[in-house]
Every structure is written in structure tokens, then in C-alpha cells.
Amino acid sequence: xxxxxIKRIGLSFPLILGVTVITFLLTRVLPGDPARTIAGVNAxxxxxxxxxQKFGLNQSLPVQYFVYLKDLFRGxxxxxxxxxxxxxxxxxxxxxxxxxxxxLSVACAAVFGIVVGTFSAIHHYSVLDHIATLVSLFGVSxxxxxxxxxLISLFSVTLRWLPAGGFGTPAHFILPVFxxxxxxxxxxxxxxxxxxxxxxHRPHVQVAESKGLPQWIVIYKHVVRNALMPIxxxxxxxxxxxxxxxxxxxxxxxxxGLGSLLMLSVFSRDYPVIQGIVLILxxxxxxxxxxxxxxYAVIDPRVVYA
Length: 306
Prior knowledge:
Elements: H1 2-28, H2 34-39, H3 45-54, H4 61-73, H5 87-122, H6 127-141, H7 144-158, H8 171-200, H9 203-210, H10 215-224, H11 228-252, H12 258-267, H13 271-299
């Protein structure tokens, strides 16, 4: 397994390098001048030029990328043009907030999706199964920003039960977690239902039932455990998908995470922070996929990593 992990990490370097190239080029084609944005509309050309020289924006694109890559290999992501703070400092101040939000959302979606998906598979083609299918289709079709606005309108504006946004108490987690969970729970439900249905008709399940074992033991030990492989895959994919969805969720709920920082950096043309956030998110997605692959061996001892 160690050799497999080392190989996967080695294969990740070209992917990360490609992410840096694409992000660097896309930030440079954004309309507007970051030096002019920071200096202000009424700033003189001399002041704007000083800002360009300070952050190396007056150099050619190949030189800028080479300097960025050289600093990156040294563990330095650069300095924020907007705040003049270290990019790593800016990111680490908000990264735990985003990670906790996404992790809690995926955990809630996984629990609900697996339970409801398993129940739908056991009682397939029943009324409750059709209702669960409709709910899953409804969840897939709803954009995060729309569900977030509707939740705020209902629970914050109309009922005044929950805060509309912000961060600091457990109550602030409820609406954004529900909005993000709704985004991915439908996929987990559908995959769980399909996987459990496939396992239900296998011979070992029929043998367990013929022995007179309680139904919950048959479902938990012989059905769900053998159906976890595709479920685990979709959970890992949804974790990466939600990392892309936090930009909308954090903007709607005023959540102080990487998503809101990314939006602020885009509007202020803060190239180093944009590049740092995208790089961190890409590395988290790569690490999540690796952990998901390694978890296969824990679920099924027959899995061997060559």
C-alpha cells in the first residue's frame, strides 16, 4: 500500500502543476488592473506604477509565473495585493471555517442519504420509495444559491428562528449545512438505492435470511457493508463537488470561509490569493480521492493495491 500511496502522490505533481498554470493564466485575463483597483480611481499613474513594481506586475507573464513557481516550491504563496498579508496567513484564517462547513454537510448528507437510500431499496416500488425518488430529483435540480435564499426567507425573515448569516454559534451552521447537504444528498440516495438493490438479490443475503437472522443484522452486516464501495466513491466525489459549491453558499450566508475570500479576491483582482485558494482546494480534492481509494481496503480486505 505504501508504494501505491507514493505513486499516487507522484502522479499528483503534474496535476497540481497544471492547476497552477491554468489558474495563473485565467487570473491574468480578468478585466481590470489590480494596481489601479488597489490605488483607487483618483490615483496618479506614478502611484499605480509603484504598486505594479512592488508586486512584480510590470514584468512579463513568463517571468511572473517563474517567480511564482519558484516561491511556491519554497513554501511561499506570495503576498496579498489587497491586504499586503501573507497569502498562507489569509487562507489559514478562513480554511477551518470552510472545512468544517463542508465536512459537516457531507456527513449529514451521507447519513441521511444512506439511511433513506437503503430504506427505499428494501421497500422498492412502494409509495415511500417513489417519494424518496422525487425528493432526490428535487434536490439535484435546486441550485445552492436558490435553496439558500429560500431558507433565509423562510427561517430567518418570516419565522425568525435562525440567523440569516454570519459565523460563531451552532445555529449559524444549520441553514448553510442544510443547503449544501440538499445539494449532494440526492446523489448519495440514488447510488445507495441502486447498490443496495444489487446486493439484496445475491446468494449470501438469501442464505443469511434462510438462517433466520434478524432483518437488521442481514441489512447491516450482509447488505449495506457489501454495498459500500460505490457509496463511498460518490461520497468522496460529493466532498470535492461541495468545495466548489462553497463559493455560492458562503456568499449567500456571509460565511467567513475560502469561498467568500475567493469572491472578494476576484473583485479586487488579488492574483496571489486567487491562485493560493485554487491550489489549496485542488490539493484537498486530490487528498480526498486518495483517502477514498485507500478506504476501499478497509471496507473490503480483498482489495489489493498494486
